């Protein structure tokens, strides 16, 4: 069973069609839109700011989402794919983006629509990544524009995880 609980009067708001896997932790000022999914071992801690996860976006296994109180919040747009073991700390991830496994996205960074953050990259605070580009490295830097096919990767992953969430939900005990 997932741990979903309020903190200081702020209770998570989870749309009826969102999926939260067993073992996920969702605390405080967190909102999951319709079709969003939060997977096994992920932690979304909205105790010192807010977290918003848009429609059909997926937060995969072991992701940690938090922020710096008074300085940042976390906003994830629609059809976003957040890979396994990502850390998002007070950043904005715009529609259709893909954050590769093990990446770290820090306070007040913004990832543009349909962009890709390569696995293992560290996006420094305040970096504004334009739409439809690949960023990679430590610290992450824009390395090139994405092809039309590559720009669809975030949305493609979101569609796959939407179906996968439905399958897992059908076999999971109720929250």
Explain this structure.
With 175 residues, this protein is mainly β. The chain has 2 helices and 20 strands. Strand 19 (133-137) and strand 20 form a beta hairpin.
The CATH architecture name reads 3 Solenoid
CATH topology tier name: UDP N-Acetylglucosamine Acyltransferase, domain 1
Strand content: 35-45%
- Given the helix and strand composition, which structural class is it? mainly beta
- Total number of strands: 20
Q: Low-confidence spans: pLDDT under 50, at least 5 residues?
A: none
Number of domains: 1
**What's the order of the H and E elements?**
EEEEEEEEEEEEEEEEEEEEHH
End-to-end Cα distance = 6 Å
Q: What spatial form do the alpha-carbon principal axes imply? A: globular
Radius of gyration of CA atoms, rounded to a whole number:
15 Å
The CATH superfamily is identified as Hexapeptide repeat proteins
Helix tally equals 2
List keywords for this structure.
175 residues, mainly beta, UDP N-Acetylglucosamine Acyltransferase, domain 1, 12-stranded parallel sheet, 2 helices, 13% helix, globular
In short:
The chain is 13% helix and 38% strand. It is mainly beta.
Question: What is the topological layout?
Answer:
Layout: E1 3-5, E2 13-14, E3 19-20, E4 25-32, E5 37-38, E6 43-53, E7 58-59, E8 64-66, E9 74-76, E10 81-82, E11 87-89, E12 92-93, E13 98-99, E14 104-105, E15 110-111, E16 116-117, E17 122-123, E18 128-129, E19 133-137, E20 140-145, H1 148-151, H2 153-171
Parallel strand pairs: 1-4, 2-4, 3-5, 4-6, 5-7, 6-8, 6-9, 7-10, 8-11, 9-12, 10-13, 11-14, 12-15, 13-16, 14-17, 15-18, 16-19
Antiparallel strand pairs: 19-20
